[in-house]
Design goal:
Nonspecific Lipid-transfer Protein, Chain A, Bacterial SCP orthologue domain-containing protein, alpha+beta, 125 residues
């Protein structure tokens, strides 16, 4: 079943590309918050559409959350497989600026559970 998109894909791709360009120039911190929010939300939707499932919850506070990765469905309470990270780290992973293993080593990513591994799904671009 396809996910319901809330972000226009063309606008989301443009926001993500804008972040990638700014990041390469070292000025991503100067980007407006709505642009970062759109890039994060678009990339979370993209992950959910490419890795449909409900066994892992990916949280990028305060911008968004999604469930992905095929496997046992979680329905109540805190999911057993949770990944949480800041927006800048998420966008760096999505864009391929950092690998999953390197991101974990920074200490900015919390990943709990047996399925909480996005190495096979990232980068998205």
């Amino acid at each position: 079943m396809a996910i319901k998109r809330r972000i226009n894909p063309a606008e989301g791709r443009a926001a993500l590309q804008h972040w990638i360009t700014a990041s390469a120039e070292g000025v991503e911190a100067d980007l407006p918050r709505p642009l970062i929010a759109m890039a994060v939300r678009y990339s979370l939707e993209e992950l959910a559409s490419r890795a449909e499932g409900n066994s892992v919850e990916v949280r990028v506070p305060p911008f968004g959350v999604t469930q992905c990765i095929p496997g046992p469905r979680h329905t109540r309470g805190t999911p057993p497989n949770v990944i949480e990270l800041p927006a800048d780290m998420w966008l760096a992973l999505v864009s391929g600026r950092i690998s999953w293993e390197a991101a974990l080593a920074t200490g900015k990513v919390t990943a709990s559970g047996l399925r909480a591994d996005l190495a096979a799904e990232l980068p998205l671009v």
